[in-house]
Amino acid sequence: MPLAKVIGIGAVALKSNIATLSMPYALNFAMTYECNSRCKTCNIWTIHRKKEELTLDEIKIFAKNNNTFRWVRLTGGEPLLREDIIDIAKAFIDNSKDMYVMMMAVNSLINKDKIISTVKAILDLGVPRLSITVSLDGYRELHDQIRGIPGNYNRAIEVYKALSELKKQYPNLHRAFGYTISKYNEGKFEDTYQGVRKDIPDIKYDDFHVNIAHSSANYYQNPEMGDIRPGKVYPDEIRQLIKNREPAFDQIHMIEDVYLKKSIEYARTGVTPMDCKSLNASIFLDPYGNLYPCTMWYHKITNVRDIDYDLRKMWNTKESEDLRKDIKAKKCPNCWTPCEAHQSIVGNVTSLITTSHGVGGGH
Protein backbone atom coordinates (compact mmCIF):
# COMPACT_ATOMS: atom_id res chain seq x y z
CA MET A 1 0.00 0.00 0.00
CA PRO A 2 1.59 3.34 -1.05
CA LEU A 3 2.24 5.19 2.20
CA ALA A 4 1.62 8.57 0.61
CA LYS A 5 -1.96 7.62 -0.26
CA VAL A 6 -2.62 6.35 3.27
CA ILE A 7 -1.26 9.59 4.71
CA GLY A 8 -3.20 11.60 2.13
CA ILE A 9 -6.61 10.21 2.96
CA GLY A 10 -5.80 10.52 6.66
CA ALA A 11 -4.92 14.18 6.27
CA VAL A 12 -8.05 15.11 4.34
CA ALA A 13 -10.21 13.11 6.75
CA LEU A 14 -8.70 14.97 9.69
CA LYS A 15 -9.33 18.28 7.95
CA SER A 16 -13.03 17.37 7.68
CA ASN A 17 -13.06 17.37 11.51
CA ILE A 18 -12.72 21.14 11.58
CA ALA A 19 -13.71 22.56 8.20
CA THR A 20 -15.86 22.16 5.13
CA LEU A 21 -13.68 20.58 2.47
CA SER A 22 -13.24 22.28 -0.88
CA MET A 23 -14.30 19.03 -2.54
CA PRO A 24 -15.58 15.68 -1.22
CA TYR A 25 -12.99 12.93 -0.94
CA ALA A 26 -15.58 10.12 -0.92
CA LEU A 27 -18.06 9.29 -3.66
CA ASN A 28 -21.04 6.94 -3.39
CA PHE A 29 -21.97 6.20 -7.00
CA ALA A 30 -24.94 3.97 -7.82
CA MET A 31 -24.00 3.11 -11.40
CA THR A 32 -27.25 1.29 -12.18
CA TYR A 33 -30.53 0.39 -10.53
CA GLU A 34 -30.82 -2.76 -12.63
CA CYS A 35 -30.82 -5.68 -10.20
CA ASN A 36 -31.39 -9.43 -10.38
CA SER A 37 -32.18 -9.77 -6.66
CA ARG A 38 -35.74 -9.55 -5.32
CA CYS A 39 -35.02 -8.40 -1.79
CA LYS A 40 -37.69 -7.95 0.86
CA THR A 41 -35.89 -4.85 2.12
CA CYS A 42 -35.38 -3.00 -1.18
CA ASN A 43 -37.34 -1.95 -4.26
CA ILE A 44 -34.41 -0.99 -6.51
CA TRP A 45 -35.07 -4.06 -8.62
CA THR A 46 -38.47 -2.69 -9.66
CA ILE A 47 -36.87 0.27 -11.49
CA HIS A 48 -36.14 -0.15 -15.20
CA ARG A 49 -34.74 3.08 -16.61
CA LYS A 50 -31.44 1.84 -18.01
CA LYS A 51 -31.65 4.12 -21.06
CA GLU A 52 -31.53 7.18 -18.78
CA GLU A 53 -28.34 6.15 -16.99
CA LEU A 54 -25.16 8.18 -17.29
CA THR A 55 -23.18 6.90 -20.28
CA LEU A 56 -19.59 5.78 -20.01
CA ASP A 57 -18.47 8.95 -21.80
CA GLU A 58 -20.38 11.08 -19.29
CA ILE A 59 -18.84 9.19 -16.38
CA LYS A 60 -15.38 9.70 -17.86
CA ILE A 61 -16.00 13.45 -18.03
CA PHE A 62 -17.27 13.46 -14.45
CA ALA A 63 -14.21 11.50 -13.24
CA LYS A 64 -11.87 13.87 -15.08
CA ASN A 65 -13.55 17.03 -13.78
CA ASN A 66 -13.66 15.72 -10.20
CA ASN A 67 -10.27 14.10 -9.70
CA THR A 68 -9.86 14.43 -5.94
CA PHE A 69 -11.66 11.28 -4.84
CA ARG A 70 -9.73 9.03 -2.48
CA TRP A 71 -12.58 6.70 -1.55
CA VAL A 72 -15.03 5.49 -4.23
CA ARG A 73 -17.95 3.13 -3.69
CA LEU A 74 -19.38 1.65 -6.88
CA THR A 75 -22.81 0.31 -6.08
CA GLY A 76 -26.21 -0.43 -7.57
CA GLY A 77 -28.56 -2.25 -8.01
CA GLU A 78 -26.13 -4.95 -8.97
CA PRO A 79 -23.03 -3.06 -10.17
CA LEU A 80 -21.79 -5.95 -12.29
CA LEU A 81 -24.86 -5.64 -14.51
CA ARG A 82 -23.10 -2.64 -16.06
CA GLU A 83 -21.05 -4.23 -18.81
CA ASP A 84 -18.69 -1.25 -18.78
CA ILE A 85 -17.88 -1.48 -15.07
CA ILE A 86 -14.16 -2.04 -15.67
CA ASP A 87 -13.98 1.11 -17.81
CA ILE A 88 -15.91 3.02 -15.15
CA ALA A 89 -13.47 1.88 -12.46
CA LYS A 90 -10.57 2.80 -14.74
CA ALA A 91 -11.93 6.31 -15.24
CA PHE A 92 -11.86 7.01 -11.50
CA ILE A 93 -8.55 5.23 -10.84
CA ASP A 94 -6.80 7.02 -13.72
CA ASN A 95 -8.06 10.48 -12.81
CA SER A 96 -8.05 10.39 -9.00
CA LYS A 97 -4.33 9.75 -8.58
CA ASP A 98 -4.56 9.84 -4.78
CA MET A 99 -7.27 7.19 -4.55
CA TYR A 100 -6.82 4.93 -1.53
CA VAL A 101 -9.75 2.53 -1.72
CA MET A 102 -12.48 1.41 -4.11
CA MET A 103 -15.42 -0.59 -2.74
CA MET A 104 -18.10 -2.66 -4.41
CA ALA A 105 -20.88 -4.99 -3.21
CA VAL A 106 -22.01 -8.00 -5.27
CA ASN A 107 -25.04 -10.26 -4.90
CA SER A 108 -23.28 -13.26 -6.55
CA LEU A 109 -26.12 -13.90 -8.99
CA ILE A 110 -24.18 -13.46 -12.21
CA ASN A 111 -21.65 -16.00 -13.42
CA LYS A 112 -18.93 -16.61 -10.83
CA ASP A 113 -16.14 -16.61 -13.41
CA LYS A 114 -17.33 -13.25 -14.71
CA ILE A 115 -17.29 -11.83 -11.20
CA ILE A 116 -13.74 -13.01 -10.59
CA SER A 117 -12.45 -11.87 -13.99
CA THR A 118 -14.00 -8.43 -13.44
CA VAL A 119 -12.47 -8.09 -9.97
CA LYS A 120 -9.10 -9.20 -11.32
CA ALA A 121 -9.29 -6.67 -14.16
CA ILE A 122 -9.99 -3.85 -11.69
CA LEU A 123 -7.13 -5.00 -9.47
CA ASP A 124 -4.83 -4.93 -12.49
CA LEU A 125 -5.68 -1.24 -12.94
CA GLY A 126 -3.53 -0.57 -9.87
CA VAL A 127 -6.03 0.51 -7.23
CA PRO A 128 -4.20 0.40 -3.86
CA ARG A 129 -7.08 -1.30 -2.08
CA LEU A 130 -10.13 -3.00 -3.56
CA SER A 131 -12.82 -4.12 -1.13
CA ILE A 132 -15.51 -6.52 -2.38
CA THR A 133 -18.51 -7.25 -0.19
CA VAL A 134 -20.50 -10.41 -0.90
CA SER A 135 -24.08 -9.86 0.25
CA LEU A 136 -25.26 -12.50 2.73
CA ASP A 137 -28.23 -11.84 5.01
CA GLY A 138 -28.76 -15.20 6.64
CA TYR A 139 -28.10 -18.91 6.67
CA ARG A 140 -29.04 -20.86 3.53
CA GLU A 141 -32.85 -20.86 3.78
CA LEU A 142 -33.11 -17.42 5.36
CA HIS A 143 -30.81 -15.66 2.88
CA ASP A 144 -32.64 -17.12 -0.11
CA GLN A 145 -35.96 -16.09 1.44
CA ILE A 146 -34.88 -12.49 2.12
CA ARG A 147 -33.20 -12.12 -1.28
CA GLY A 148 -36.05 -13.79 -3.14
CA ILE A 149 -33.78 -16.01 -5.24
CA PRO A 150 -33.49 -19.77 -4.59
CA GLY A 151 -29.86 -20.89 -4.51
CA ASN A 152 -28.48 -17.39 -3.82
CA TYR A 153 -26.78 -18.55 -0.61
CA ASN A 154 -24.84 -21.27 -2.41
CA ARG A 155 -23.69 -18.81 -5.06
CA ALA A 156 -22.54 -16.33 -2.40
CA ILE A 157 -20.45 -19.02 -0.71
CA GLU A 158 -18.83 -20.01 -4.00
CA VAL A 159 -18.03 -16.40 -4.92
CA TYR A 160 -16.52 -15.78 -1.49
CA LYS A 161 -14.33 -18.87 -1.82
CA ALA A 162 -13.18 -17.77 -5.27
CA LEU A 163 -12.36 -14.27 -3.99
CA SER A 164 -10.35 -15.84 -1.18
CA GLU A 165 -8.29 -17.73 -3.75
CA LEU A 166 -7.79 -14.54 -5.77
CA LYS A 167 -6.64 -12.73 -2.63
CA LYS A 168 -3.60 -15.04 -2.53
CA GLN A 169 -2.42 -13.35 -5.73
CA TYR A 170 -3.52 -9.83 -4.80
CA PRO A 171 -2.78 -8.74 -1.21
CA ASN A 172 -4.60 -5.47 -1.88
CA LEU A 173 -7.88 -7.36 -2.35
CA HIS A 174 -10.15 -7.39 0.68
CA ARG A 175 -13.29 -9.49 0.72
CA ALA A 176 -16.02 -9.88 3.30
CA PHE A 177 -19.63 -10.86 3.67
CA GLY A 178 -22.06 -7.95 3.86
CA TYR A 179 -24.78 -8.68 6.44
CA THR A 180 -27.73 -6.30 6.73
CA ILE A 181 -29.76 -6.64 9.93
CA SER A 182 -33.46 -6.08 9.30
CA LYS A 183 -36.72 -7.19 10.88
CA TYR A 184 -36.46 -10.31 8.71
CA ASN A 185 -33.23 -11.67 10.20
CA GLU A 186 -32.93 -9.99 13.59
CA GLY A 187 -31.47 -12.40 16.13
CA LYS A 188 -30.16 -14.74 13.43
CA PHE A 189 -26.58 -13.55 13.02
CA GLU A 190 -24.97 -16.28 15.12
CA ASP A 191 -27.00 -18.95 13.34
CA THR A 192 -25.82 -17.47 10.05
CA TYR A 193 -22.19 -17.42 11.16
CA GLN A 194 -22.31 -21.03 12.30
CA GLY A 195 -24.00 -22.02 9.03
CA VAL A 196 -21.27 -20.35 7.00
CA ARG A 197 -18.60 -22.10 9.10
CA LYS A 198 -19.88 -25.43 7.80
CA ASP A 199 -19.05 -24.28 4.27
CA ILE A 200 -15.99 -22.14 5.08
CA PRO A 201 -14.33 -23.59 8.21
CA ASP A 202 -11.76 -20.79 8.55
CA ILE A 203 -14.32 -17.97 8.45
CA LYS A 204 -13.96 -15.35 11.18
CA TYR A 205 -16.39 -12.89 12.73
CA ASP A 206 -14.19 -10.16 11.28
CA ASP A 207 -15.11 -11.41 7.81
CA PHE A 208 -18.64 -10.02 8.21
CA HIS A 209 -19.40 -6.34 7.58
CA VAL A 210 -22.63 -5.68 9.46
CA ASN A 211 -25.02 -2.81 8.86
CA ILE A 212 -28.62 -1.85 9.63
CA ALA A 213 -31.53 -1.84 7.17
CA HIS A 214 -32.91 1.60 6.33
CA SER A 215 -35.63 3.15 4.23
CA SER A 216 -34.75 5.61 1.49
CA ALA A 217 -36.87 7.16 -1.26
CA ASN A 218 -33.88 8.19 -3.38
CA TYR A 219 -31.86 4.98 -3.05
CA TYR A 220 -33.62 1.82 -1.89
CA GLN A 221 -36.98 3.14 -3.17
CA ASN A 222 -38.59 1.32 -0.23
CA PRO A 223 -40.56 3.73 2.02
CA GLU A 224 -43.86 2.02 1.15
CA MET A 225 -42.48 -1.25 2.55
CA GLY A 226 -43.03 0.09 6.05
CA ASP A 227 -40.53 -0.11 8.86
CA ILE A 228 -37.92 -2.70 7.88
CA ARG A 229 -35.48 -1.83 10.66
CA PRO A 230 -34.67 -4.40 13.32
CA GLY A 231 -36.25 -4.05 16.76
CA LYS A 232 -34.87 -4.57 20.26
CA VAL A 233 -32.77 -7.70 19.75
CA TYR A 234 -30.04 -6.48 17.43
CA PRO A 235 -28.05 -4.38 19.97
CA ASP A 236 -27.33 -7.61 21.87
CA GLU A 237 -26.29 -9.23 18.60
CA ILE A 238 -23.91 -6.38 17.92
CA ARG A 239 -22.46 -6.48 21.45
CA GLN A 240 -21.71 -10.18 21.01
CA LEU A 241 -20.19 -9.55 17.58
CA ILE A 242 -17.92 -6.88 19.03
CA LYS A 243 -16.72 -9.34 21.68
CA ASN A 244 -16.00 -11.95 19.02
CA ARG A 245 -14.07 -9.66 16.66
CA GLU A 246 -10.29 -9.78 16.86
CA PRO A 247 -8.26 -6.60 17.48
CA ALA A 248 -6.66 -5.21 14.33
CA PHE A 249 -4.83 -2.03 13.33
CA ASP A 250 -6.13 -1.99 9.77
CA GLN A 251 -7.81 1.37 9.14
CA ILE A 252 -11.05 -0.01 7.73
CA HIS A 253 -11.30 -2.58 10.53
CA MET A 254 -10.96 0.13 13.17
CA ILE A 255 -13.61 2.28 11.47
CA GLU A 256 -15.96 -0.71 11.46
CA ASP A 257 -15.33 -1.25 15.16
CA VAL A 258 -16.54 2.28 15.86
CA TYR A 259 -19.49 1.83 13.51
CA LEU A 260 -20.64 -1.25 15.42
CA LYS A 261 -20.25 0.35 18.83
CA LYS A 262 -22.10 3.49 17.77
CA SER A 263 -24.85 1.28 16.31
CA ILE A 264 -25.82 0.40 19.84
CA GLU A 265 -26.30 4.07 20.65
CA TYR A 266 -28.25 4.54 17.43
CA ALA A 267 -30.54 1.65 18.37
CA ARG A 268 -31.40 3.44 21.60
CA THR A 269 -31.90 6.96 20.26
CA GLY A 270 -32.73 6.68 16.56
CA VAL A 271 -30.49 9.71 16.07
CA THR A 272 -27.22 9.73 14.13
CA PRO A 273 -24.70 9.29 16.96
CA MET A 274 -22.17 11.87 15.74
CA ASP A 275 -21.90 14.86 13.42
CA CYS A 276 -22.61 13.62 9.91
CA LYS A 277 -20.09 14.54 7.20
CA SER A 278 -22.39 14.06 4.22
CA LEU A 279 -22.06 16.93 1.72
CA ASN A 280 -18.67 17.64 3.24
CA ALA A 281 -16.55 14.50 3.05
CA SER A 282 -18.91 12.69 0.67
CA ILE A 283 -21.72 12.95 -1.86
CA PHE A 284 -24.16 10.53 -3.53
CA LEU A 285 -24.53 10.27 -7.31
CA ASP A 286 -27.40 8.18 -8.69
CA PRO A 287 -27.42 6.35 -12.05
CA TYR A 288 -29.15 9.25 -13.80
CA GLY A 289 -26.71 11.96 -12.73
CA ASN A 290 -28.74 13.30 -9.81
CA LEU A 291 -26.74 14.51 -6.82
CA TYR A 292 -27.97 14.10 -3.23
CA PRO A 293 -26.28 14.85 0.10
CA CYS A 294 -26.32 11.11 0.82
CA THR A 295 -28.02 7.85 -0.04
CA MET A 296 -30.73 8.36 2.59
CA TRP A 297 -31.89 11.96 2.14
CA TYR A 298 -34.36 12.45 -0.70
CA HIS A 299 -33.25 15.99 -1.48
CA LYS A 300 -32.02 16.38 -5.02
CA ILE A 301 -29.45 19.17 -5.24
CA THR A 302 -28.87 19.19 -9.00
CA ASN A 303 -27.95 16.95 -11.91
CA VAL A 304 -24.37 16.68 -13.11
CA ARG A 305 -25.59 17.30 -16.67
CA ASP A 306 -26.71 20.77 -15.55
CA ILE A 307 -23.36 21.73 -14.00
CA ASP A 308 -21.05 20.49 -16.76
CA TYR A 309 -20.23 17.39 -14.67
CA ASP A 310 -18.26 19.62 -12.27
CA LEU A 311 -19.04 19.41 -8.53
CA ARG A 312 -17.31 22.73 -7.91
CA LYS A 313 -20.28 24.47 -9.50
CA MET A 314 -22.64 23.24 -6.75
CA TRP A 315 -20.37 22.70 -3.78
CA ASN A 316 -20.46 26.21 -2.31
CA THR A 317 -23.91 27.34 -3.38
CA LYS A 318 -26.35 28.70 -0.82
CA GLU A 319 -28.44 25.54 -1.16
CA SER A 320 -25.45 23.34 -0.32
CA GLU A 321 -24.50 25.55 2.62
CA ASP A 322 -28.07 25.45 3.96
CA LEU A 323 -28.16 21.66 3.61
CA ARG A 324 -24.94 21.37 5.60
CA LYS A 325 -26.50 23.43 8.38
CA ASP A 326 -29.53 21.15 8.38
CA ILE A 327 -27.31 18.09 8.50
CA LYS A 328 -25.39 19.51 11.44
CA ALA A 329 -28.69 20.27 13.20
CA LYS A 330 -29.82 16.69 12.38
CA LYS A 331 -32.76 17.94 10.31
CA CYS A 332 -32.23 14.99 8.00
CA PRO A 333 -33.33 11.32 8.00
CA ASN A 334 -30.83 10.51 10.79
CA CYS A 335 -29.39 7.32 9.35
CA TRP A 336 -26.49 5.14 10.40
CA THR A 337 -25.42 3.36 7.23
CA PRO A 338 -21.76 2.55 6.48
CA CYS A 339 -21.89 4.50 3.20
CA GLU A 340 -22.36 7.69 5.23
CA ALA A 341 -21.14 6.68 8.69
CA HIS A 342 -17.58 5.71 7.75
CA GLN A 343 -16.72 9.24 6.61
CA SER A 344 -18.43 10.64 9.68
CA ILE A 345 -16.35 8.43 11.96
CA VAL A 346 -13.03 9.62 10.56
CA GLY A 347 -14.47 13.15 10.46
CA ASN A 348 -15.13 13.03 14.20
CA VAL A 349 -11.95 11.35 15.36
CA THR A 350 -10.97 14.29 17.57
CA SER A 351 -14.20 14.04 19.56
CA LEU A 352 -13.89 10.25 19.75
CA ILE A 353 -10.43 10.61 21.27
CA THR A 354 -11.39 13.32 23.74
CA THR A 355 -14.70 11.96 25.02
CA SER A 356 -14.42 10.09 28.29
CA HIS A 357 -16.34 7.07 27.04
CA GLY A 358 -14.24 6.69 23.88
CA VAL A 359 -16.13 4.73 21.24
CA GLY A 360 -18.27 2.74 23.60
CA GLY A 361 -21.53 3.92 22.09
CA GLY A 362 -23.89 3.55 25.05
CA HIS A 363 -25.69 0.59 26.58
Shape: globular
Query: Helical segment tally?
Result: 13
Mean pLDDT: 92
Residues in helices, as a percent range:
25-40%
Uncertain segments are 354-363
List the helices and strands and how they pair.
Elements: H1 3-15, E1 26-30, H2 56-65, E2 71-75, H3 85-95, E3 101-106, H4 112-123, E4 130-135, H5 140-147, H6 152-167, E5 173-181, H7 189-199, E6 208-212, H8 234-244, H9 251-269, E7 282-285, E8 290-292, E9 302-303, H10 312-315, H11 318-328, H12 338-346, H13 349-354
Parallel strand pairs: 1-2, 1-7, 2-3, 3-4, 4-5, 5-6
Antiparallel strand pairs: 7-8, 8-9
Helix pairs in contact: 2-3, 3-4, 4-6, 8-9, 9-12
Descriptive account of the structure:
With 363 residues, the chain is an alpha/beta fold. Helices cover 39% and strands 12% of the residues. The protein contains 13 helices and nine strands. It has helices spanning 3-15, 56-65, 85-95, 112-123, 140-147, 152-167, 189-199, 234-244, 251-269, 312-315, 318-328, 338-346, 349-354; strands at residues 26-30, 71-75, 101-106, 130-135, 173-181, 208-212, 282-285, 290-292, 302-303. The chain has a nine-stranded mixed sheet with strand order 6-5-4-3-2-1-7-8-9, sandwiched between helices. β3 (101-106), α4 (112-123) and β4 form a beta-alpha-beta unit. α2 packs parallel to α3 and α8 (234-244) runs antiparallel to α9 (251-269). The longest helix is centred in the last third of the chain and has 19 residues, at 251-269. The two termini are 37 Å apart.
